[in-house]
Design brief:
By secondary structure, the protein is mainly alpha-helical. The protein has helices at 19-27, 58-69, 73-89, 97-108, 117-132, and strands spanning 2-3, 9-10. Strands 1-2 form a two-stranded antiparallel sheet.
């Protein structure tokens, strides 16, 4: 959901399946048939919205902080998260180490204001090298 300055909210709502928002991002502005179940609006549904639990989801807190910091922070966060999750899935680090790895990478890679795609890719490579090395 996105809240605009006038207070209105626009939401992308679909079945709980990441294929839908990914497809939308890849095919925008077109809309293509998606291989996900359709929502049945005739069924009763309840949605509960609660504040995020940053204790339970520490990387979410880091993501909010990276967004606030601007610049290349979100690029660094993404690269570090990919490497940390890969290490977790390979059994090389425990699950809680994902957040610690991302936080350390954000601390060690300087936040910059990239002006080109090449600069963004270099920031990504530097973040990956730090974590993979």
């Amino acid at each position: 959901m996105v809240e605009y300055t006038d207070g209105s909210v626009v939401a992308q709502i679909s079945a709980t399946d990441m294929r839908m928002p990914i497809q939308y991002a890849l095919t925008y502005p077109e809309r293509a048939d998606a291989p996900v179940p359709r929502l049945d609006w005739s069924e009763s549904a309840t949605w509960n919205f609660e504040p995020p639990d940053f204790q339970k989801f520490p990387v979410l807190k880091l993501a909010y902080e990276a967004q606030e910091a601007g610049g290349s922070a979100t690029c660094t966060l993404n690269a570090a998260d990919e490497i940390a999750v890969e290490a977790f899935l390979a059994g090389n680090i425990p699950f809680p180490a994902i957040a610690a790895t991302v936080a350390e990478t954000l601390d060690r890679i300087p936040n910059r204001d990239p002006q080109t795609i090449a600069e963004v890719l270099e920031i990504d490579r530097a973040s990956v090298r730090l974590r993979a090395g």
